[in-house]
Amino acid sequence: MKYKDYSLYDFLKDKFFVDWVKKPTMESDLFWKSWMEDNPEKEIEKAKELLLSIKYREAKIYQTELNDSLEHILRKAEEFDLELKPAESSKYYLIKWATSIALFLMAVTFTYFILKSPESQDLTKSVYVLRETSPGMKSTIKLSDGTTVSLNSNTKLKAPERFLQNTREVFLEGEAYFQVKKDSRRPFIIHTDDMQIKVLGTSFNVRSFLDEAKIQVALGGGKVEAHSNIVNNEAAYSIILSPNEMLTYSKSINKLNKDTFDLDEIVGWKDDKIVFQKASFNKVVSKLQNWYGGQFIIEGRPNNETGFSSTFQGKSLLEVLQGMSSTSGFK
Amino acid sequence: MENRLNVCDTVEPEIQFEKKDNRKFISYFKSKSEKEVWDKFRGGSKQAFIFIYQEYFQILFNYVFQFTKDRAQIKDRLQELFFDIYKKRDSPNSTDSIKFYLYRSLRRRISKSLQSKITSIFSNGQEQKYEFKVDISVENILIKEEDDLLWKTKLERGMNRLPSRQKEALYYYFYENFSYKEIATIMGTGKVKSARTLIYRGIDSLKMIQN
């Protein structure tokens, strides 16, 4: 057998081995894992560890430097395209730039819809299906891989009709509870407006409404990895959540926070449970509006500093309001 | 209430990014292969260009940082690189590996400034600056014994004492996962065999230091 009696240095010289340690593929992983099982020797362990601990010095770029540099390049690119002399003001060019992106997008969209006829669909690409819930409505769907997704009110989920071989990706706007079917070879990725969430198989809740300042990812079990879409920023690093941990991402300050959470308060909605825990009046109103659909007409405001705490399951709006009025003393 | 279900489109969520905010399309391009991104860029997509910039600027910065510590110089070189790529986007080269393409053109620029004394990024032209300094971290769980610590420290010292060319080759080999062919092209040796020789020689010296 080829790798018998290999020394640490022989392993280091083996490209197949080095590539596996640095960037495993399915094939190499299969091979080396079983090889290591059959040959529990120290040399290969050492080689692997050495490769993983080699670090070269790094120079961190700040987000502002990165943006300034990009702006500089784009300005030069724009000048090059227009064959113009340097601009009087960079603002002018930024506007031009934004316009050109917008125009470009419109053009892409336009040609796309014109060119796309149903017959020309490529089998290697997925056909995406959009599921939508309106305010006051909930829905549960099953995806092609066996994953179940419960959609809360006012939520959009875009998922392929059939997942491709190497990836499972969906797009979410709103709130949904995922029970992801385990498949270690195909990670399940949820794209939200500002964040990507990657898991192999677990159940968790994602809340990401465009008009809300925060994105929440709460975990019932298993591990989940979340990446901010903003590149090269503290928050861009992935965060790993353990069971009963919740991740909150604040959009305006671009910050990730890890915390524990109350299971019922966060994911109760999927069992038709409304839970308030020291909730502010505004929070109660917005939650109920979303839940039952419709607008409340608010006359006056209760004076309640401790916030509202109550739990309801499968109740009508009237029952909820009656319940709250008796415990919290508002009408 | 009914569950609306409509087939909206195939894989092109590009329509979702109608905001001028750059980061919206990052996750879209992330799911594409390098070739697809590159072809989009060559087809005139500025989004793809911004994506490539966002993906690689920091990595390339670290790479050039192995040659010089002058941050302003590194930034200038990288801005030139990206602008040149932009200018030449119509040229016919397709590529499967953007990373390799970028490293290759960057390395060529570095060689040039090595030769010309005036604009040299090694302002005094000395080899000592040309470092590729390695740190072998000893925080790993596997280390329980003094022996292990010693072993790693020795290797670290050994790697840092290798000739520059070998150090550079090992950087691409151990750290950046380039193939022999890519390493040969980046380093301008042209031949796969000579790249392999450089790497093997480096590893052999480590072995000698250790024993």
Structural class of chain B: mainly alpha
CATH topology of the largest domain in chain B: Rna Polymerase Sigma Factor, Chain: A
The residue ranges of chain B in which pLDDT falls below 50 over 5 or more consecutive positions are: 1-20, 117-129
Euclidean distance between termini CA atoms of chain A? 81 Å
Q: What would the principal axes of the Cα set say about the shape of chain B? A: elongated
Could you tell me the radius of gyration of chain A in angstroms?
A: 26 Å
The total number of structural domains of chain A is 4
Count up the helices of chain B.
Answer: 9
The best one-word shape of chain A is: globular
Order of helices and strands of chain B: EHHHHHEHHHH
Description of the molecule:
- The complex is a heterodimer of chains A (331) and B (211).
- With 331 residues, chain A is α+β, with helices and mostly antiparallel strands.
- Chain A is 34% helix and 27% strand.
- Chain A has 9 helices and 16 strands.
- In chain A, strands 2, 3, 4, 5, 6, 7, 8, 9, 10, 11, 12, 13 and 14 form a 13-stranded mixed beta sheet that branches. Chain A has a two-stranded antiparallel ribbon with strand order 15-16.
- The longest helix of chain A is centred in the N-terminal third of the chain and has 26 residues, at 90-115.
- Chain A starts with 7 loop residues before the first helix and ends with a helix.
- Chain B has 2 domains: 15-115, Rna Polymerase Sigma Factor, Chain: A; 131-210, Arc Repressor Mutant, subunit A (Orthogonal Bundle), CATH 1.10.10.
- Mean pLDDT of chain B is 77; it is low at 1-20 and 117-129.
- Classes of the chains: A alpha+beta (331), B mainly alpha (211).
- Strand 1 of chain A pairs antiparallel with strand 2 (134-136) of chain B.
